[in-house]
């Protein structure tokens, strides 16, 4: 394939975390808020749009702006602060695509640098919201609301891309996700 995968460490993350107080369960409350705010706002606007206004264009633009803000915030800010993960794609001079996955290194004391509460918030929001958009996609498809299907597909694509990128960061960028899922399902089947 034309993609190369490179692991790099997250820069300057250990210094900030080691100075923070251990008392707070949520070390980055603003990041935690915005991690969920844009996601939930896009879903709420989608659900209430037809009740609040008759303008499809205004609803579509609002939802896509919220989804875009969510994509950027999760990809560039909240993933790094809340769980110490970040990913991106870069294209070199030859036109080859390189996926880069960053993961925060364990601090010198060997302690966890992200809180469990933040990690739960991050992963719950990251996994739940794309599933809701998939349900919306099937709902729009089966109810023949074709104009809403484009908006819902944007929700699935933007939030699904972040989910995929962070799963690759979490489980290891060099591992094949298909073989990992097959092995997991095989173990579950043999266990039963």
UniProtKB/TrEMBL annotation:
Residue intervals passing through the bilayer: 29-48, 54-74, 121-142, 148-167
Highest rank taxon of the organism: Eukaryota
Annotated keywords: Membrane, Transmembrane, Transmembrane helix
UniProt-listed InterPro entries: TVP23-like
Pfam families, alphabetized: DUF846 (PF05832)
Keyword Transmembrane helix attached: yes
Lipid bilayer topology: Multi-pass membrane protein
Any one Gene Ontology cellular component term annotated for this protein: Golgi membrane
Main localization category: membrane
Compartments it resides in: Membrane
GO biological process: protein secretion; vesicle-mediated transport
Listed PANTHER family: GOLGI APPARATUS MEMBRANE PROTEIN TVP23 (PTHR13019), GOLGI APPARATUS MEMBRANE PROTEIN TVP23 HOMOLOG B (PTHR13019:SF9)
Family, as annotated: Belongs to the TVP23 family.
The protein's name in its UniProt record: Golgi apparatus membrane protein TVP23 homolog
Organism: Opisthocomus hoazin
């Amino acid at each position: 394939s034309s993609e190369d995968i490179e692991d790099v460490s997250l820069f300057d993350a250990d210094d900030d975390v080691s100075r923070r107080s251990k008392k707070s369960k949520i070390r980055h409350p603003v990041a935690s808020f915005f991690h969920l705010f844009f996601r939930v706002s896009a879903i709420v606007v989608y659900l209430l749009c037809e009740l609040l206004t008759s303008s499809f264009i205004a609803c579509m633009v609002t939802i896509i702006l919220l989804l875009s803000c969510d994509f950027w915030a999760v990809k560039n800010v909240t993933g790094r602060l809340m769980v110490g993960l970040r990913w991106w794609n870069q294209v070199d001079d030859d036109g080859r695509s390189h996926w880069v996955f960053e993961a925060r290194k364990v601090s010198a004391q060997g302690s966890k640098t992200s809180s469990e509460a933040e990690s739960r918030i991050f992963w719950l929001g990251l996994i739940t919201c794309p599933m809701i958009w998939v349900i919306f996609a099937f709902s729009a498809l089966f109810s023949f609301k074709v104009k809403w299907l484009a908006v819902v597909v944007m929700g699935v694509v933007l939030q699904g891309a972040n989910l995929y990128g962070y799963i690759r960061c979490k489980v290891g960028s060099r591992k094949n996700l298909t073989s990992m899922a097959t092995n997991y399902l095989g173990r579950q089947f043999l266990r039963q």
